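Fill in residues.
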């Protein structure tokens, strides 16, 4: 029995040492590859009399970086997942650029098509081209070696405003089954909305809040919907009579409500 415990203790110590070594490697990598460039502004709006714009790629590091540029038309599917396709409606220059250390360069954007009745959406991608200097090897106790190449990629929205912008969104549906409440937010306007958060608040018959959860929001493009969900603990679900839902943007808030039935917690 003593030998078994000795073997077990030795194995534990071995794996603890291995985990500590891997943690050191990850910390080293994280420090070595801190983001040294950025893109400003984070979004661009075109439309009306504004036919062009500029993004600045800023290199805060000491070494030169190389980047490749691309633009895609941006849509979303029924689950809110981004769908990107090639486009010729936006022109940009340059397609490839080198940015010296502690300097910046401009990406010029131009609109080829006139605004329509609905907002058009695109994404600009600025992707770092890896170089041999970006690959580093770390050796610890001669038995762990890590070689990592990291290239950063930035994605900025480009919005082409319609002739008459109208922002509006609603809760298309609030429902619950098997203890999970789902709120579907639908964009009924002709421009995008950007939700800060969707908050769920479950209350008992006397108005006491027994459950709350906030889900981070995101862009919902015009005419599309996005589902937000929250799982309710089993011991709480049966005590709820209502669930209030609110969706917050920078300019306003939309509210929804669900009357909870007992079978919604199980079926």
């Amino acid at each position: 029995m003593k030998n078994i415990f000795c073997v077990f203790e030795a194995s534990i110590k071995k794996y603890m040492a291995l985990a500590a070594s891997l943690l050191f490697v990850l910390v080293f990598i994280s420090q070595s590859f801190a983001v040294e460039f950025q893109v400003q502004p984070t979004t661009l709006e075109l439309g009306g009399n504004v036919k062009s714009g500029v993004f600045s790629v800023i290199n805060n590091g000491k070494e030169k970086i190389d980047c490749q540029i691309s633009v895609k038309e941006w849509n979303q599917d029924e689950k809110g997942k981004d769908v990107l396709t090639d486009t010729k409606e936006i022109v940009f220059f340059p397609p490839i650029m080198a940015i010296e250390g502690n300097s910046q360069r401009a990406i010029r954007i131009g609109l080829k098509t006139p605004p329509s009745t609905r907002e058009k959406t695109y994404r600009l991608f600025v992707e770092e081209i890896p170089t041999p200097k970006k690959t580093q090897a770390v050796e610890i106790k001669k038995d762990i070696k890590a070689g990592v190449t990291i290239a950063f990629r930035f994605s900025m929205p480009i919005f082409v405003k319609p002739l008459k912008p109208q922002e509006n969104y609603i809760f298309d549906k609030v429902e619950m089954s098997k203890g999970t409440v789902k709120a579907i937010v639908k964009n009924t306007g002709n421009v995008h909305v950007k939700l800060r958060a969707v908050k769920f608040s479950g209350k008992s018959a006397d108005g006491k809040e027994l459950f709350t959860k906030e889900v981070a929001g995101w862009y919902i493009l015009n005419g599309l919907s996005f589902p937000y969900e929250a799982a309710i603990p089993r011991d709480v679900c049966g005590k709820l009579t209502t669930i209030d839902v609110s969706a917050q943007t920078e300019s306003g808030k939309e509210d929804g409500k669900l009357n909870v039935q007992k079978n919604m917690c199980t079926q």
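The first helix runs from residue 2 to 32.
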